[in-house]
Model the fold of this input.
Amino acid sequence: MPEDLVFMMGKYEARIPGDRLYTENHLWLQPADTAFRVGLTAWSVRLLQDVYFLDWDIDADASVRHKQEIGQIESSKAVSALYAPADGRLLSFNEQLLDDPSAINTDGYGDGWLYLFETDANLLSPAEYVAHLEANWEKTQRLIKGQLN
Done:
C-alpha cells in the first residue's frame, strides 16, 4: 500500500492517504470494484469543522457533469454546495450519512464516504494533491482569516 502523506494546515495535520486519488475540489476517490467510493478530504473537513447535515439534489444512478452541483452540506461554519468531482455517474449514496453525518467528522476516510461514482476522468495522485494544497495554502489562509474577522 502506498504511504500516506501529510499536509500541515498551520499546526493541524491533514492526512492524505496514499491508496486513493484526489480532485482539486478536495474530494478523495478510492477504487471500489468498478467504481470509486468518494468522500471529503481531511483538508475540507478541517475547514468545514463539524458537519451536521447532508442533502442531495440528484437521485442515485444519475449522470453528472464536472462541477455540477449535486447537494449541500451544512456545518458549524457554513452551508456549502457539493459538486461532482468529474463527468461520470453517481451510482448510490451512503444512506447512513443521511440520518447521521457524524462519520464525516470522525471517520472521513472510512465510514464517512459520501457516494459511489463511476468515471474515467484523470484524477490527482496523492503527491499532486499535496502540491495543489501547497500552491493554494496562502490563499486559503487569507480566506480563513477573512471568515474569522
Q: What stands out?
A: The chain has one domain: 5-142.
